């Protein structure tokens, strides 16, 4: 495109690394320590072999993992499609994906105990249960402690390496401006996408579906992916607004970028509903006990209003709210909906994880089992997530200043 | 057919991050684009090859009609459908044709929302194909209802007996889903045609022609007010069409997945069917676009880059289909349900293993050839791959339908389905109907969206600094 009206100075202070990153790190570590420390203390005091704590922790962990994976998908997709519009916000997505190594560390409270045979979270992690239960015995080739550990190492290793690779090359281009780097990233993006799809799917199978090891659903990977993309788009909107509020980015990220991010956020809100409906409707219609074990406890007691609220908060209300052009172009309104949907994503993860305590661990039916550990764990993981983002923002320019398609990204308009 | 690829094919498939490739080649301006496209329906003498193809298509369509007449006379017993396979080729053909019809709306609606300018050269073509495919699809359930003189019973019409269709049946949802889809696709297609029909009207040399194109261009004058309303409506129609791309084949998948039958009852069916539909739809677009562009000399409008982009979509959706196959297999094992496990084992190694492996080789393996740029950008090679994809997608529906049915839960109800000659003639005949409509479209309507292509050319944006080179004369945005 040749209509670039703005030219960029690579040393523009608005695009330089974020000075507030240090503060983000400090605050993040503070929140992380308080949140996770408090939750762990409560968990230890509960005397349930950390069962309550681990479930709360998994809700929070799956929540932020989804955002980071959504960011990684976004970056990969932009390279795969040779996108131009998104260059101005791509660095932010690269930084969000760059939290994956930190999330790999944060997976340890789940992975290590499970590997060592603690079955407070995953019933199948108990070797004795695998002997007694015919179905678990059948699945032992897949659901066993060692293979679980191996898979987690492979998945988090792949995600971390891929995220680092994209970020490293992109920031290298900030210095050299070499268009060959873009070509290289694009070449990698196609095979990376395949591995991403497989790792995300089996990650969702392992971390979420195997919570109820008798239950199965072929769509589970797509379900987790839909929520991941929606919440990643919301996160990018929040992050861009935050940085602009701090005097960064300036007019480089325009209302048209917000508009497009808003469209994608809207699209994936809708897509999530489509996938969630497909899964639910087919299981409801078939009405086979081996399928319905997952939904049945979610339709009892306190879970009834929660399930209905999930439909409203995650789909019906934002569907109407974000639909109009106005809502996506008034960035204040868009920010409101982004935060709203980030809350909806938490409800979704809570809905997916928590009833396990009833199905698998003898928790009282019909109860939400909401505890203080839920907000504490969320704040704790949020803290480390913010710190990881702060590290990225502090170190790198906020926009790929020498990306060959940046001018296109600065010039495009939604009409 | 594609040996006719012109020697003046210009390669615009190189990916250069610093600039967007040209989409309209050969130094075209607004006038030459109009000439190239509007010139086709304005030909005074109809090309002999067209007549040949048309005669063949009409003959096949006639065979289709005769078969249907015989079917109505004799009943569905003329088909291979029998216990335990009560759903045979008719449903397979229905799903196959509905799937073919998915590329059109994806290109016109979703790619429009994603600002993919390259879609303008192929959208008219693909939308037309969509409508004709939906027509072919609707024939099959229409003739399969047992009492073909009562098709209106499928609709919830108030009647003196207060009899209503079963709203819980996904087959009824199909009536609504496919009906809506056909209506909105036709509307969208016709709506896009209006400015181009007006162009042909304005160029018409005979009274009849002026009248005919005049009636259908609805008094279009091309005033700023017309354009303004046109573009607003186009955007809204695109947004309305987008969920339809997902909904139609999702509902078709519900026909199977709501059942409790192993091999049918699985939650990934809706998105998996949608991906497969787009996959087969694009394969059909490429299969037809390559000979059509050579035949009418449209290589500068439907360039190698357009074809390559479509092939990339075929590769991507083919991977999604492969993903769904593998998920189904994994869960068939992981779910530890012996009936589910048997069904999948039986698919791959039972009496229909030949069909299963045709499906896998055509749908999963053959699109992998599109990793090679050479194959992605050589017209005759891509047509071969795309024909394989279409064969594979037909077999996919065959495998899903027949393998899950032919071995019922009791071995006493096991059987082997074979089609009759009437099954085969109906399927072949449906291609006759499709090609009859398609050839009429090629002959009488603008096959490329003239106005939309022009809107993407640099001349439309008031800056001309790029002209000069032969290969770089026009539109950007790749």
Write the layout of secondary structure elements.
The complex is a heterodimer of chains A (415) and B (478).
Chain A: H1 21-46, H2 51-80, H3 87-97, H4 100-106, H5 108-115, H6 127-132, H7 134-138, H8 145-176, H9 179-207, H10 220-245, H11 255-286, H12 289-292, H13 303-323, H14 325-329, H15 331-353, H16 356-359, H17 373-395, H18 406-411
Helix pairs in contact in A: 1-2, 1-17, 2-3, 2-8, 2-9, 2-10, 2-15, 2-17, 3-8, 3-10, 4-8, 5-8, 8-9, 9-10, 10-11, 10-15, 11-13, 11-15, 13-15
Chain B: H1 30-42, H2 48-74, H3 89-100, H4 102-113, H5 123-142, H6 170-203, H7 207-216, H8 224-257, H9 269-296, H10 304-334, H11 338-349, H12 353-365, H13 373-377, H14 379-406, H15 421-444, H16 450-455
Helix pairs in contact in B: 2-15, 3-5, 3-9, 3-14, 4-5, 4-8, 4-9, 5-6, 5-9, 5-15, 6-7, 6-8, 8-9, 9-10, 9-14, 10-11, 11-12, 12-14
Question: What is the compact description of this entry?
Answer:
By secondary structure, chain A is an all-alpha fold.
What does this structure look like?
- The complex is a heterodimer of chains A (415) and B (478).
- Chain A has 415 residues and is mainly alpha-helical.
- Chain A has 18 helices and no strands.
- Chain A has one domain (3-410).
- Helix content of chain A is 72%, strand content 0%.
- Chain A is globular.
- In chain B, helix 4 (102-113) packs across helix 9.
- The longest helix of chain B has 34 residues, at 170-203.
- Mean pLDDT of chain B is 89; it is low at 1-7 and 464-478.
- Chain A binds chain B through residues 1-3, 82, 84-85, 135, 138-139, 142, 179, 182-183, 186, 190, 194, 197-198, 201, 205, 216-219, 221-222, 263, 270, 274-275, 278-279, 281-283, 285-286, 288, 290, 404-405, 408, 412, and chain B through 15-18, 20, 113, 115, 243, 246, 250, 254, 257-260, 265-271, 319, 323-324, 327-328, 331, 334-337, 371, 461, 463, 465-466, 476-478.
